[in-house]
Amino acid sequence: MMPTEASREDNVYMAKLAEQAERYEEMVEFMEKVAKTVDAEELTVEERNLLVVAYKNVFGAWRASWRIISSIEQKEERCENEDHVSIIKEHRGKIEEELSKIRDGILDLLDSPLIPLY
């Protein structure tokens, strides 16, 4: 069990474990902790790669969900099944909100010390 205040190395290790288990949302959480510990030093190449893999997979899964839901929505619209269309639109909206949160998360990290100002 990890201590309450996990070290940078512990978080990187846990991110690697999460990647192997294909638990990308957890991987994002661990890599966000690593990124937020960066003060004067930069992320290592390995840490940057882990961060990219984590966000790519989380965002990719939600994007795939959005595409599927949008496709079903179009099908239901063609069938003029308005009851289903309204339910699907509501669900698609929830997916879009989650995509926005993920996008905002990575943008917040990029606005932090990850990208030094020159």
Automatic annotation (TrEMBL):
<protein>
    <submittedName>
        <fullName>Uncharacterized protein</fullName>
    </submittedName>
</protein>
